Amino acid sequence: MSSELETRTYRVTRADLVAYANASGDQNPIHQDEQVARSVGLPGVIAHGMFTMALVGRAVESWAGPGRVVEIGCKFTKPVVVPGGDDGVDVTVAGTMGDPADGLATITMVVTCGDEKVLGAPKAVVRA
């Protein structure tokens, strides 16, 4: 029988985006400069897609335990818009773990920012 997992919420700020850009080498200005982001049609500065996926990975590891994640994936469907200032924005990860089979279990997730789903078909496979 599937089981609901405790929802995880992560606050994302512009400072997080700067730190991620420095760590990843992805210095695309749409992740740091409001004017550049808007000039290319975005609603504002957006989080890196892989940063959002890292939050999903953090949630999955918190549910499954260290070293148990086998596979993780999603489609990037909506940007996480991060306002200026210190308030940031919340990204919420909710999950349901399916029944284990052959020592593995699949976690299906819903990842939202505000009222919008920001990732399509996010799922992970973990060691049961």
How would you portray this structure in words?
This protein is α+β, with helices and mostly antiparallel strands and 128 residues long. It is built from 3 helices and 6 strands. Strands 1, 2, 3, 4, 5 and 6 form a 6-stranded antiparallel sheet that branches. The longest helix is centred in the middle third of the chain and has 16 residues, at 49-64. The model has no long low-confidence stretch (mean pLDDT 97).
Total DSSP helices: 3
User: What's the β-strand tally?
Assistant: 6
Largest sheet: 6 strands, antiparallel
The radius of gyration is: 16 Å
Shape: elongated
Proportion of residues in helical segments: 25-40%
Which structural category do the helix and sheet elements fall into? alpha+beta
Distance between the termini: 14 Å
Reading the helices and strands in chain order gives EHHHEEEEE
Strand content: 35-45%
Low-confidence parts lasting 5 or more residues at pLDDT below 50? Answer: none
Protein topology:
Blueprint: E1 3-12, H1 14-24, H2 34-39, H3 49-64, E2 69-76, E3 89-97, E4 104-113, E5 116-117, E6 119-127
Quick synopsis:
Strands 1, 2, 3, 4, 5 and 6 form a six-stranded antiparallel β-sheet that branches.
